[in-house]
Write a structure and sequence with these properties.
Elements: E1 2-6, E2 9-13, E3 69-70, E4 83-84, E5 91-97, E6 103-108, E7 111-116, E8 125-129, E9 132-138, E10 143-148, E11 154-160, E12 170-171, E13 178-181, E14 187-192, E15 199-205, E16 223-225, E17 228-232, E18 237-242, E19 246-247, E20 253-254, E21 258-264, H1 268-273, E22 286-288, E23 291-295, E24 300-305, E25 316-322, E26 332-333, E27 339-342, E28 344-345, H2 350-355, E29 358-361, E30 370-374, E31 382-383, E32 389-390, E33 394-398, E34 403-408, E35 414-419, E36 429-431, E37 434-438, E38 443-448, E39 458-463, E40 473-475, E41 478-482, E42 488-493
Parallel strand pairs: 2-15, 4-40
Antiparallel strand pairs: 1-2, 3-8, 5-42, 6-7, 8-9, 9-10, 10-11, 12-13, 13-14, 14-15, 16-17, 17-18, 18-21, 19-20, 22-23, 23-24, 24-25, 26-27, 27-29, 28-31, 29-30, 32-33, 33-34, 34-35, 36-37, 37-38, 38-39, 40-41, 41-42
C-alpha cells in the first residue's frame, strides 16, 4: 500500500491481493468483492485480543470504565444501547439550541436548497467529561457543536466543515479526547477536543481509494475498536484504518491513521441484478463478536470476519445476502447474533417481494438465513429508513409512510400498529419501557410499552416544530432531539430545566 498525505488528506493507491472467501446465506460468493488493500503489518499483533464486540454488549453501554454515555449512533458497536433513564414523565423543554436556526445551503443530486436543523440519523452523542455532561452533534448548518447537555451552553466553539452533516458523530470509547465525524463535504475527520477549541487532527477524502461509485458523503457513524476506525462511505467502499492513537511529549492527543483495509461494498453479482449502480454505504457498521456487518443502497448485506486483524491476517467475507433494495438504515442485532434489517422499497424488484422490508436473518444458518419477514409495499416509496429497535422479545419499527409497529422477535408476527404523520425516519428508542419517536408533523411522542403485546397508550407528546427525522438520545432525565425546524431540543422533567 502506498499512502500520500496531501495537506491533511490521505490519498491511497491500493494493491490488490487474494484470500480464501467463505460466504454464508442463500447467495453464492463472487470473487469481484476481494479487498483492494492489504491488512496491517506484524506490529498490529495483539495476543489474546478479546472479541471486537462481546455478545454480552447487546443492550448495554459501550463502556463505563473510560467514558460513560451514548458514544455513537445507537450507543454501542452492536447498535443496541438506547441510553440511560429515567425518561421524563412530566416533560418540558429545558432549552432549545441555538438562538437562531441551524441552516445552510447544500446541493444534492444537482439541486441546491436550504437545509435546516438536524435530520437522518442525527443522534447526538451524550457523555460525561470533566464533571460535565457533553452533547456533541453535527447539523445542517455545516458545524459540529459541543454543548453542555444541562444548559445548552457552548463548551467549545463550533467546528465548521464544508457542507452539512447528516449522520451521528462517534466519541472515542477508550477515553482519548477525540471525535470522529463524517459529512457531505467529502471528508471523514478526527477532531481533538482536548483544548479550548476543537482541532482537526486528520481527515480523509472519499476519493482516497478506488474504485468508487455514486457519491462522496460520509453519513455512517464510525466504530472505534482496538485502535481501528471502521467505516463505510457513500463512495461504496468499506474502510478500516489503524489510528495509532497516543499523546505527544506535551501531553496532547495524537493520531496517525493508516488505511489497512478497504473493499468495495458491491460485487459483480449485485451489479448484474440492479438497474443502476447506486451502491453507496450509509448504514453504520454493526459488530457481532468478531464480525462486522454492513449493507448498501443496492441491498447487499455483508459480514466480514476481522478476528485476524491483530495478527496481520486479512478480513474474510463470511456472509452475503441480497435484500433487493436500498438499505440505508443501520441493522440491529440480539444476543443470539441475529440481524434485523430494515429495507426501503423503491426499485420494485421481485426480490423485494420475496424477502420483505423488515427481515430477521440468521447469519450462521445453513442455507437460507431468512427467519421471518414483514412486508411494507402499500405505497411507494415504501419500506423503512429507520433502524429497528430490538428489546427482550419485541422489535419496534417505523416506516416511510408513518406506520409505527411492534413484532414478536421470535416469530415476526405483528403485535400492534399505529399511524403517525410520515415520513417517520427517526429510529425508535426504548428506555424504561418507554418508546420514544418523532413524526414529520413536528410532534415527539412517548408511549408505554411495558406490555409489548398490546397497542401502547401514549404517555405524553410535545410539539417541537419541524419534521423530526433524527434519533433521540436519552440520558439521566434528559432527552436530546433535533428537528428540521432548525434546533436541538433538550426535554426534561418539569421543574428540572
Amino acid at each position: 500500500m502506498v499512502a500520500l498525505v496531501v495537506g491533511m488528506t490521505l490519498v491511497v493507491t491500493a494493491l490488490s491481493w487474494g484470500f480464501d472467501q467463505v460466504v454464508g446465506g442463500s447467495d453464492s460468493a463472487d470473487d469481484s468483492s476481494q479487498p483492494t488493500s492489504a491488512p496491517g503489518s506484524s506490529e498490529d499483533a495483539e495476543a489474546g485480543q478479546a472479541p471486537f464486540a462481546d455478545p454480552a454488549l447487546v443492550g448495554q453501554p459501550w463502556t463505563t470504565a473510560s467514558v460513560e454515555g451514548i458514544l455513537t449512533f445507537r450507543g454501542n458497536p452492536t447498535r443496541t444501547y438506547f441510553g440511560q433513564g429515567p425518561v421524563p414523565r412530566d416533560p418540558e423543554i429545558g432549552f432549545k439550541f441555538p438562538t437562531n436556526p441551524m441552516c445552510s445551503e447544500s446541493t444534492d443530486l444537482g439541486e441546491t436548497k436550504t437545509w435546516c436543523g438536524m435530520g437522518w440519523t442525527g443522534q447526538p452523542a451524550v457523555f460525561e467529561r470533566d464533571d460535565r455532561t457533553w452533547a456533541v452533534f453535527g447539523a445542517y448548518d455545516r458545524n459540529v457543536h459541543f454543548i453542555d447537555a444541562d444548559t445548552g451552553e457552548r463548551i467549545l466553539p463550533d467546528f465548521p466543515t464544508g457542507d452539512l452533516i447528516k449522520g451521528s458523530v462517534t466519541i472515542d470509547p477508550d477515553g482519548y479526547p477525540l471525535v470522529y465525524t463524517g459529512g457531505r463535504d467529502n471528508f471523514l475527520r478526527v477532531l481533538s477536543i482536548d483544548g479550548d477549541t476543537a482541532t482537526e487532527l486528520w481527515k480523509v477524502s472519499s476519493e482516497a481509494v478506488s474504485p468508487v461509485r455514486w457519491n462522496d458523503d460520509w453519513d455512517a457513524s464510525p466504530l472505534v475498536i482496538n485502535d481501528y476506525l471502521i467505516e463505510g462511505g457513500e463512495n461504496g467502499q468499506f474502510h478500516i484504518f489503524r489510528l495509532h492513537r497516543g499523546y505527544d511529549d506535551a501531553g496532547e492527543v495524537t493520531v496517525d491513521p493508516e488505511l489497512i483495509f478497504n473493499t468495495p461494498g458491491w460485487d459483480d453479482t449485485l451489479l448484474a441484478e440492479l438497474p443502476d449502480d447506486t451502491v453507496s454505504i450509509e448504514t453504520s457498521p454493526v459488530m457481532v463478536g468478531d464480525t462486522v456487518y454492513f449493507a448498501n443502497s443496492g441491498g447487499l448485506v455483508q459480514g466480514w470476519d476481522l478476528s485476524g486483524l491483530g495478527t496481520g491476517e486479512a478480513p474474510r467475507r463470511t456472509f452475503r445476502y441480497w435484500v433487493g433494495d436500498d438499505t440505508d438504515a443501520t441493522m440491529s442485532t440480539d444476543a443470539d447474533g441475529m440481524l434485523y434489517v430494515a429495507v426501503e422499497w423503491e426499485r420494485s424488484l421481485q426480490r423485494s417481494s420475496e424477502v420483505g422490508q423488515l427481515l430477521k436473518l440468521d447469519p450462521n444458518a445453513e442455507g437460507d438465513p431468512l427467519v421471518w419477514k414483514v412486508d411494507d409495499r402499500e405505497v411507494k416509496p415504501g419500506g423503512l429508513w429507520a433502524s429497528p429497535a430490538v428489546t427482550d422479545d419485541s422489535v419496534y419499527a417505523a416506516t416511510n409512510a408513518g406506520e409505527v409497529f411492534a413484532v414478536d422477535r421470535a416469530s415476526g408476527v405483528k403485535r400492534w400498529s399505529i399511524r403517525l404523520p410520515g415520513p417517520t425516519w427517526g429510529s425508535p428508542v426504548v428506555v424504561d419501557d418507554v418508546l420514544l419517536i418523532g413524526d414529520c408533523g413536528g410532534t415527539f411522542h412517548a408511549y408505554d410499552v411495558s406490555d409489548p403485546t398490546v397497542e401502547p397508550p401514549e404517555i405524553w407528546s410535545l410539539e417541537l416544530g419541524g419534521c423530526i427525522e433524527s434519533t433521540p438520545a436519552v440520558w439521566n432525565d434528559r432527552i436530546l432531539i433535533g428537528t428540521r425546524g432548525g434546533f436541538l431540543h433538550m426535554i426534561t422533567s418539569a421543574g428540572d430545566g
